[in-house]
Design goal:
Layout lengths: L2 E4 L21 E5 L2 H5 L5 H20 L3 E5 L10 H11 L5 E5 L4 H7 L2 H4 L3 E5 L8 H8 L7 H12 L3 E2 L2 E2 L30 H13 L16 H22 L16 H6 L4 H13 L5 H25 L18 H4 L5 H13 L4 H15 L3 H11 L5 H12 L16 H7 L20 H12 L1 H4 L6 H8 L3 H17 L4
Parallel strand pairs: 1-2, 1-4, 2-3, 4-5
Antiparallel strand pairs: 6-7
Helix pairs in contact: 2-8, 6-12, 7-12, 9-11, 9-12, 11-12, 12-17, 14-15, 15-17, 15-19, 16-17, 19-22
């Protein structure tokens, strides 16, 4: 008797656990574009187009493999608008189905719903673990058990040992676990950034783009031009182009930012990884091979592997280990509203404007822009975590809660009180000036603190330290910084607080 196999929009891989023993001659694959998933947050238009097009292309690949695919389009007349309802309709229509097979979803809300399905449907329901990741959730739980601090660096080292990636026997390749100190160079004015691999949309993608324009006209972001890949073959072409042409320079400039340079040396592969079009372990092995064959330096390859084998695996493990209550923490009691310019990019702060404008254009910003520009501003101004997390979920093509929430909630705004980061990643204009050319093209003076033309990041940075001095004073990594706060005169404090209050008012935050 046939099984019904539900494949979600971020499970577009033939190696999914739900498909591992599927029988094309009898089993039926269900894929559904449903409004509930398209609207639980107001996704960027490019993300919607990417996921819907990738789903439709994957359905075709399954059909080429001989599978019978029941594909529900968003505007189909009988579309029930929710996954549960579409599964129920499929089971009713396909009366001989005995079992429903699903790979567990990547978010709490969906898994909670699916765990009720055995009681709702008159067929056996089998929820399988997602095996696309390098570490299982049990691996992470075993590592995290009895640890007082769940630092990514130590998890990363365990993953290196487990996989053998960038290892020479029992020792890390090159003698160091981490080459981050070599990867903090500012982009020289004379340095040209590399050309990128992109592709033109085919007829399926064009049809999806028209759908998105019609159904989601008010969503965030610019839909056209659209030039991301939407198939495994295209994702692999993007992967190969990165490893051969761009990876060699990734290490040196991975933290650098530059005006109107959205891509730099970053891979732009996370959106493909997160929907299943690329395999993370395979990607790491290919990067390692580039180093061992002399095609890329160790600092570049280690930095790239750390983002996947380290950060990506770590945040996924932590997301499930901490559970739904994690998102409710608000360690710094941030209560302010997000300013409107997060949605428009219309601000005189050159760094914020550039990072947001490219987010509008590409549904993308690299990790330092997310952490040290838009994230840093949210941290310093005390924007409520719910609003910050919602924004990051809505604006990026690679955003799914399992990966977005820990990075944003813990790393960017320290709302978890130090579960992920050992200290708040708060910074003044000095950091932005050091790592970018933004300040030279900005109307604000990056050296000023309280003057009318002083960069807002400076007064906001000092005001953040003053405001949170008591709660942060027990943090061992904040000692030296807070000593500088102690040295401020009463008059300095008043001027900083007044400038910060004036800025917050001008931003419409209070």
């Amino acid at each position: 008797m046939p099984s019904l196999i539900l494949v979600l929009g971020d499970q577009l891989s033939l190696s999914m656990s739900s498909l591992k023993d599927a029988n094309p001659e009898s089993d039926i694959v269900l894929m559904a574009e449903v409004m509930e998933e398209a609207t639980y947050v107001g996704h960027h238009k490019k993300k919607l187009a990417f996921v819907f097009s990738a789903m439709r292309h994957f359905a075709r690949e399954l059909e080429k493999k001989g599978f019978s695919v029941r594909y529900v389009h968003l505007t189909d007349k009988n579309n029930q608008g929710a996954l549960r309802a579409e599964v129920s309709r499929a089971i009713e229509d396909l009366s001989d189905v005995e079992k429903l097979i699903v790979t567990k979803p990547g978010e709490w809300r969906l898994l909670a719903d699916m765990e009720d399905w055995p009681d709702l449907f008159d067929v056996e329901v089998e929820l399988r673990d997602d095996t696309r990741f390098i570490a299982t959730l049990d691996d992470f739980s075993d590592w995290a058990a009895d640890r007082k601090q769940l630092r990514m660096e130590y998890f990363y080292r365990e993953m290196r040992r487990k996989t053998g990636l960038l290892m020479d026997g029992d020792e890390p390749a090159g003698g160091e676990w981490n080459y981050d100190q070599e990867n903090r160079k500012r982009l020289p004015n004379s340095k040209q950034t590399p050309q990128r691999w992109f592709c033109e949309p085919d007829d399926i993608t064009q049809e999806v783009m028209n759908l998105v324009e019609d159904q989601f006209p008010d969503n965030f972001g610019r839909l056209r031009p659209f030039n991301y890949g939407v198939t495994q073959k295209q994702a692999e072409a993007a992967r190969d182009a990165f490893i051969s042409d761009i990876l060699p320079g990734f290490g040196d400039y991975q933290d650098a930012m530059a005006q109107e340079e959205p891509w730099m040396w970053h891979s732009i592969l996370s959106l493909y990884l997160n929907v299943g079009l690329l395999d993370p372990l395979d990607l790491c092995k290919r990067a390692e091979a580039a180093w061992r064959e002399g095609r890329a330096p160790l600092n570049a390859v280690e930095g790239f592997v750390r983002q996947i084998l380290g950060w990506r695996e770590y945040v996924r493990g932590l997301y499930w280990y901490k559970g739904p209550e994690y998102k409710n923490s608000n360690f710094l009691n941030a209560q302010n509203d997000m300013p409107e310019f997060y949605w428009t990019g219309e601000t005189d702060m050159a760094c914020m404007s550039d990072a947001i404008q490219q987010t509008i254009e590409h549904a993308y910003a690299h990790h330092i822009q997310r952490l040290m520009v838009t994230g840093n501003f949210a941290l310093l101004t005390g924007i409520h975590p719910d609003q910050v997390n919602n924004w990051y979920m809505r604006v990026y093509a690679d955003a799914y809660e399992w990966v977005e929430l820990p990075n944003t909630h813990g790393m960017a705004i320290f709302a978890d009180g130090g579960v992920i980061a050992s200290k708040p990643y708060a910074a003044s204009a000095n950091y932005i000036n050091k790592m970018s050319d933004y300040c030279g093209n900005c109307r604000y003076n990056h050296k000023g603190r309280v003057e009318d033309d002083a960069c807002p990041f400076n007064a906001l940075y000092w005001n953040f330290l003053i405001r949170n001095q008591e709660v942060l004073q027990t943090n061992p990594r904040m000692g030296l910084v807070l000593k500088n706060v102690d040295r401020l005169s009463d008059d300095d404090r008043k001027q900083i607080q007044a400038r910060a209050a004036s800025l917050m008012k001008s931003f419409g935050m209070c």
